[in-house]
Structures are given as structure tokens and as C-alpha cells.
């Protein structure tokens, strides 16, 4: 009986240490105008309520934070510009991307414990 109770207690402690699973989700569209050197980012869905974009080079702003269902503009960018996107939530990774001419829709999701 004692062994069974000790086993249950050990199992419960192990499972409690795992914590709740987190789900990081990000969906946005980007429309790049190469002639104007402007990109419009529309945040469609984010587990944190916002989409965060970070840029290399001469982008202005260098970091753009856009709320869900809102659009933000970044100038000084064009096809080939490197950037990364994240939900900005705890533990969220910034996913590397390269801008392409025209409009794209991008989705990322990750489940972690």
C-alpha cells in the first residue's frame, strides 16, 4: 500500500512539473510595393493579440508592433529584405523571413509545454 501511494505521489509531482501547454500562433499578411519601398503588414491572428516584426537594414521603423485586425506600414524595405515575425508572447521565437514582391499570407504555430 505504501509503495502504491509513493508511486502515485511521485507521478503527480512529475506531471505537475510539466506545467500547462502553451500554444503560440501567428497569422498575418504582407503586401510589398517594390517601387515605393513600402510593406504593409496586417496582423490577422496572434496568441498574444499582436504581431511583432523586426527588420534588418534601413527599415523604418526597425521594429513594428501591430495589433490583431490592424495594419502597419514599414518603409525602406523591398523584395529581399530580411525580417522576422513573432507573436511577442513569452517564449515565442522570431521566425526569419524574406520579403517578396506582392501580397503573401504567412502562418506560424507552435505548441510547447
TrEMBL record:
Organism expressing this protein natively: hydrothermal vent metagenome
Stated name of the protein: Lipoprotein
